[in-house]
Amino acid sequence: MGIGAILLIVLLVLVVAIVVTAIVVVPQGEAAVIERLGSYTRTVSGGITLLVPFIDRVRERVDTRERVVSFPPQAVITRDNLTVAIDIVVTFQVNDPARATYGVDNYIVGVEQISVATLRDVVGGLTLEESLTSRDTINRRLRGELDAATGKWGLRISRVELKAIDPPASVQQSMEMQMKADREKRAMILTAEGQRESDIKTAEGQKQARILSAEGEKHAAILSAEAERQGTMLRAEGERAATYLHAQGEARAIQKVNAAIKSAKVTPEVLAYQYLDKLPKIADGQSSKMWMIPSQFGDTLQDFAKSFAQKDEDGVFRYEPPQVDDATRDLAEAEDTEGWFSTESSPEIAEAVAAANAVAKKPIDPEVHELAAKQQDPQGVQDLQNQDDEGLAVRHRDEVDG
């Protein structure tokens, strides 16, 4: 092989090397920081970039994707002098690769150190209980501090989370015992509260039952008294009507006997005969020891006959009965006694029984309210009593007229 061929091969290799070093491929999600003669020129990402051979070079390739970094547990002292171990998870993204390259030596170590310092500052002002219950507050403060500190490095802090807060074993055991005691306390309080509510409800139910029972007894007593009053009034009304009818019957019987005597035109001789006929029966008494007839009994009969008789031509006193008018003759005649022994109730009694049945079938509450209203209004009670008396008087007049 000649020298010319060797030179050609060397030239070709040199051209290929220059071409390879002049072409840079930057994948998507990555940025390349390019320097020219040791000075920053530009940042390229996602594609093919041409460099000036032996003058431009790639200083750093930076991952521009969002990254999640978990830092090891850090010992932090709380305000109540308890040491707790806290794990931190930081989510960040490189927005300016040039600043991330030239602004800090190792931005991940810087984020870790700033996170630890900020965490100790934040948690140092809180108690253990506040640290356990204030995760959101701690996360917001850590994110704000980190975002402000790492902004000049070209980083954007997206999220900061406390993964775990582990107190000492003894403290954790004490906390568990305290929580158990609190839960038992709350359970006892809830049990006592439930028992109290149950007792109150039971007492309230018994109270309502007694009130309702007393109200029912009062209603029953009112209805019983009202029924007794109405029964007494009806019995008194019946007795008064019976007495009146009995007296009216006796008067009618006397009128009937008197009319019959007048219609029969009884002579003094018949009366004298009846008188003499009854004398032995009058004397025939077990308690009669002595019976005397007046000596002038005949003269008395004679005077009686003279006062009611007229002397005829023969000198004999003869009794002429008076003329009987039509009213007396009608009164003496027989009456229709078919309805005397009827067992059917009168319309008034049937009406009273129907009213009593209607009252008995009414609900208790409306009747009791009506009675209570009557009790609260004495004038209304008096008016009702006067109406009852007027109704009874009208029925009496109807019976008398009948």
UniProtKB/TrEMBL annotation:
Membrane-related topology note: Single-pass membrane protein
Residues annotated as transmembrane: none
Keyword Zinc-finger: no
Annotated localization: Membrane
Basic and acidic residues bias locations: 392-402
Tagged with keyword Membrane: yes
Pfam families noted in UniProt: Band_7 (PF01145)
Positions of region (Disordered): 371-402
Entry's family note: Belongs to the band 7/mec-2 family.
Protein name: Band 7 domain-containing protein
Organism for this UniProt entry: Corynebacterium maris DSM 45190
